[in-house]
Amino acid sequence: MAKPKVATTHMTGCFGCHMSLLDIDERIVDLIQLVDFDKSPINDIKKFTGPVDVGIIEGGVSTQENVEVLRMFRKYCKILVAVGECALTGGIPSLRNTVPLKECVEEAYLKGFTVVDGVIPNDPDIPLLLDRVYPCHEVVKIDYFLPGCPPPADAYWAALTALLEGREPELPYELIKYD
Amino acid sequence: MASKARKIVINPVTRIEGHAKVTIRLDENGKVDKARMHIVEFRGFERFVQGRMYWEAPVIVQRLCGICPVSHLLCASKAMDIVAGVDKLTPTAEKMRRLLHFGQTYQSHALHFFHLSAPDLLLGYDADPAIRNVIGLAVEHTELAVQAVKMRKWGQEIIKATSGKKIHGTGSIPGGFNKNLSIEERDFLLKDVDQMIQWAVDGLNLYKELYMKDIDTLGPLGSFESNDVSIVREDGALDIYDGKLRARDKDGNDIFDMVEPVEYYKYIKEGVRNWSYMKFPFIVSLGQEKGWYRVGPLSRVNNCDFIDSPIAEKERQEFKALGKGRPVHSTMAYHWARLIETVHSAEKIKELLGDPDLQKDDLLLTGERRPEGIAIIEAPRGTLFHHYRVDENDQITMANLIVSTTSNNQPMNESVRIVAEQYLEGEKITEPLLNLVEVAIRAYDPCLSCATHAVGQMPMHVTLIDADGNMLDEKVRD
Ligand code: SF4
Prior knowledge:
The complex is a heterodimer.
Chain A: E1 6-10, H1 16-22, H2 27-34, E2 52-58, E3 61-63, H3 64-76, E4 77-83, H4 84-89, H5 101-109, E5 129-134, E6 144-146, H6 153-164, H7 173-176
Chain B: E1 6-10, H1 14-17, E2 20-26, E3 32-39, H2 45-48, H3 57-61, H4 69-83, H5 91-123, H6 134-140, H7 142-163, E4 172-173, E5 176-177, H8 183-190, H9 193-213, H10 215-218, E6 227-232, E7 244-248, E8 254-259, H11 264-267, E9 268-271, E10 280-283, H12 287-290, E11 293-294, H13 297-303, H14 310-322, H15 333-353, E12 372-379, E13 382-390, E14 396-402, H16 404-407, H17 409-423, H18 431-444, H19 447-455, E15 460-466, E16 471-477
Parallel strand pairs in B: 6-11
Antiparallel strand pairs in B: 1-2, 1-15, 2-3, 4-5, 6-7, 7-8, 9-10, 12-13, 13-14, 15-16
Helix pairs in contact in B: 5-6, 5-7, 5-15, 5-19, 6-7, 9-15, 13-15, 14-15, 17-18
The complex binds iron/sulfur cluster.
Iron/sulfur cluster sits between chains A (13-14, 16-17, 58-59, 84-86, 91-92, 149-150) and B (63, 66, 168).
């Protein structure tokens, strides 16, 4: 029987949620036995050849490209799990929602203390920014939410092993309390 | 003849990850004109941190990077020490911070070399991409992969013991630190310390062997001569937590030296290009065109006069000999320098763990509030600058952050351009070209793309486009 497939992606987050997944340490070897990362969508979006069992999303939605990626993941993943505050609520990056985007961009590229000859980046090779940073569930349906900044490695382990075995994850309080 | 110009787009991080994308532009003669690495992410910390209380800055800004959050935590704390009116921490607080920082440097360097780069080096750049990753490494070199996992884990345990959590802990606060190290925590970390030093030395020896064996390829790969920037201790020693700014040119001559961190903005400024969300820092006296510089392990080991731990210092001298009296400019020597620093971190951790100051209770100082704080630290990937202004209500009114990867922005573009020059055959996109672009970028590590590689293969998507936007060729590698 083919191993279940897992895909992960990073959108507007800090990669800490991925790093926390790595903190399962030696269990990474067990995880490799359990699932297939090969040919998963992590490799290339065009390679979504078939359904993926579990998709893991880190980060919120702040660019037009994030929206496309998230929709792709929804389309191809049977179960979609949003991990970390950024994916769940927009997190720290969504602090920018309290300020007009224009001001944020001008601060960085025109008014920055050490900036000289500032311009606002606008080349077609870089994606457009959205007005706000959105949580994932405002863009697509999310099946499970794993809280934390980042979720602890043990929470990943408990949730993933359950989902891969077709059980409902049971997360004790210690794994979902904030810090 | 604009229509003859060609543009190759490499999307090494996949569209899914969407953080970096490379275009190589060819001129009318099909020669490599320039390479651009587009950073496609923008978050706006400098603006939205305004209005927050100054003591919140360390925990907010560390969310810039989940791979080296400790660097941001510490750099913001150092800047806010000044705002809190504290010029010198208690010995316990300073040593706790240093322990935290060495723990991070150890784990981050181990991750960078073993998880991200060793697969290319040990399995071969041309190995099947499906196995040329940490998973393949686990299959083919199980012992090494398990050792790599344990090295990173130990570094993470140090971070947890000092800051309470492996990722985005607290610990460091303006004016000091909020805990000391218990005897139990100390002993837990001490029991593995000799093994960790040994594994770091083994890793260094392994890399030296690989590098020397393949020096004709690895030496010039993506290499060019550049300026180096780092901080150094007042006596010239390598110091990744605190020091003064030093910039040296390609021959090793000072451009400036012993510059106080508070003066940084007189020496370093940033340019902006409309095709990247990442800015382009440069040394003011040399101007935008010529003033770009490298940061990170290579620059630090080049710039320092000595390393104050015995094994690492011996290794530094051997490394220095590579440059034959000049700084080492080989891009792939980044890993070599990185592993010297890994050894150094483990040596210093051992020294700190033996220091009884870590069990003392004198942790926090206060002073007279000041309106501005500037600090510089050496993050694993290079010099990091934080600069804040705070009003009388304790709210931040200005923030300027120059992060390590930003300083390496132009150098990464240069490396890609040179790899393309070295390996582009006509207008054909070849497998070796793709592989080596990846390898060169990974020597610096634009954090995000490399981390992707930790759990899956770094994929490549290359399109050859003419100046009118017509696609001439496409290559997707899974
Ligand atoms: S939730 Fe926290 S750890 Fe995860 S991406 Fe966001 S800031 Fe980083």
